[in-house]
Amino acid sequence: MIEQINNLFEEIKNLTASNAEELEALRLKYLSKKGIINTLMAQFREVPAEQKREVGVRLNELKNAIQEQFNALKENLAGKEEELCDIDLTRTSYPTRLGTRHPLSIVKNEIVDIFARLGFSIADGVEVEDDWHVFSSMNFAEDHPARDMQDTFFVEAHPDIILRTHTSSVQSHVMETSKPPIRIIAPGRVYRNEAISYRAHCFFHQLEGLYIDKNVSFTDLKQVLLLFAQEMFGTGTKIRLRPSYFPFTEPSAEMDISCNICGGKGCPFCKGTGWVEILGCGMVDPNVLELCGIDSKEYTGYAFGMGIERITNLKYQVKDLRLFSENDVRFLKLFESAN
Ligand code: DAH
User: Among residues 144, 118, 137, 299, which one has the least CA distance to residue 212?
Assistant: First the structure.
């Protein structure tokens, strides 16, 4: 009998109960009327007198040990059930909150849609570029200040590899790899080595346009830009083109639209002039066409480039450029209904 008791000591060390049923099964097996302990108690009567003391003490120890083990398992289970009860099953379910589209994406999509309706397709470019596509093929002179360390981020140890400073770099890729007629827009992120403030950032977004075919004229450019301005800012919007300079276009111009915040009367946004500059444009310089493998005697083209942050500001009057990249949910939520 001593041996049987010792085996039971071993057995109960490993008892577990992961739910109330299992616990009850243990109780029935060991502690109930017909359980093991009671059965042993009954058999105890038959134990020879000289062994009674030893077996009796051991049997009592076993009984206590099983009871203790049972209590411990019970307590453990009660704790778990309490944890489960922490879940408030009466709480109503609610739909998951969806994210909102970023204001720059909203405006970019709007611009893309307008040009897509005019037959432009989207060209993709890379942000880490080589000097050729950003500057040389775009007719920038060797000593042009835009190549300067002040403006351009260089990839260390590779003076030829840079972060693109404008999306005009996509122009040369497209011209090198496709034949006219070419009619593309290229939206994307660009980088400039600027101190970050409310009005400047070291990265921002542009959208480039390029159209090359036979007999493309400045009038075509003007017409497309007028249509864009009126689609984007309303039919009453006026445009004006001012002569300007870009290495990759000749002639070049900057385009203003009548300030859509004050309707052209003059306000702090347009600095009282009634006009706001929104893009640069011009006829693709024949040098650029030739550098990119297009016969400039046969083809002409126009190009334009605009800042997406600027257009977004005109639409939504965001005063601090940094808001666009901070991902503050309170700011982003303002555009929930503009999606
Ligand atoms: N790349 C110019 C910039 O970053 C913008 C620009 C001006 C693009 C004139 C053009 C253009 O395609 O014709 O400021």
Answer: 299
Q: Report yes or no on 223 lying in a domain.
A: yes
Predicted confidence (pLDDT) per residue in 136-173, tens digit = 999 998 888 877 766 899 988 888 999 999 999 999 99
Structural domain of 122: 103-338
Count of CB atoms situated within 10 Å of the CB of 82:
9
Residue 239 contacts by C-beta under 8 Å, 6 or more apart in sequence?
A: 222, 225, 226, 229, 255, 256, 257, 258
Same domain, 80 and 107: no
Q: Whose CA is nearest to atom 3 of ligand 1?
A: 166
Q: Which residues pair with 184 in a beta bridge?
A: 121, 210
Which residue is associated with the tokens 């109503």? 92
Going from the Cα of 168 to the center of ligand 1, the distance in angstroms, rounded, reads 6
**Is there a domain that residue 91 lies in?**
no
SS3 254: strand
**Cis amide bond preceding 95, omega within 30:** no
Residues 6+ apart with CB under 8 A from 71: none
Taking Cα atoms as reference points, which of 282, 216, 218 lies closest to residue 246?
Answer: 282
Q: What are phi and psi of 244, to 5 degrees?
A: -150, -170
* In a shared domain, residues 189 and 331: yes
As a whole number of angstroms, the longest Cα–Cα distance in the chain is 125
Kindly give the number of the ligand 1 atom that is closest to the alpha carbon of 167.
1
Q: In angstroms, rounded to a whole number, what is the distance separating the alpha carbons of residues 67 and 199?
A: 76
| 14 domain residue, yes or no | yes
Pocket of ligand 1 (CB under 6 A): 166, 168, 208, 246, 249, 280-282, 303-305
Residues 56 and 199 in one domain: no
Statement to judge: residues 196 and 308 lie in one domain: yes
215-262 pLDDT, tens digit each: 999 999 999 999 999 999 999 999 999 999 999 999 999 999 999 888
Query: Does residue 293 fall inside a structural domain?
Result: yes
Nearest atom of ligand 1 to the alpha carbon of 249: 13
For the chain, how many structural domains are there in total? 2
